[in-house]
Design brief:
The protein is mainly alpha-helical and 135 residues long. It has one domain. The chain contains six helices and two strands; from the N terminus they run ααααβαβα.
Length: 135
């Protein structure tokens, strides 16, 4: 099992991405006819409360990585994929902050579909005197 505590020991965006990458696995069977299960869960007050706590903990940064602020919608991603059984049994893992991390939509898709082109892009967030590169 992967965890937030292990993830934050990795300092670079690249290392964190490689740790989270699923190589094409998409939430196992929580889609299709059983999608109603995850939709019910993601609308629950318990999920909304934990989601807010994770956003605050990660300062709205992509994969909790300082210097990578998420611009736009923040996705709170389950580090370990969710199964139908997890949703039906309402296991604690679904609401455990150790299994959750903030990601951007672009990073979320890259985690699931294995597009590591994202790790080659460094977002410039601030400028310094003598910096002559344009954004």
């Amino acid at each position: 099992m992967k965890s937030y505590s292990e993830l934050i020991r990795l300092h670079s965006f690249e290392e964190r991405f490689r740790y989270l990458r699923l190589n094409g696995v998409v939430a196992n069977e929580t889609f299709g006819f059983d999608r109603y299960l995850n939709q019910r869960f993601y609308r629950s007050p318990e999920w909304k409360r934990v989601r807010q706590q994770v956003i605050v903990r990660d300062n709205g940064n992509d994969m909790g990585c300082p210097g990578y602020p998420i611009r736009g919608d923040i996705i709170v991603h389950h580090i370990n994929p969710v199964s139908i059984e997890d949703l039906e049994d309402n296991i604690e893992l679904l609401l455990d902050p150790e299994n959750l991390i903030c990601v951007s939509l672009q990073t979320h898709n890259a985690i699931h579909y294995g597009d590591d082109a994202i790790v080659k892009e460094k977002v410039i967030t601030d400028r310094r005197p003598g910096d002559t590169k344009l954004w």
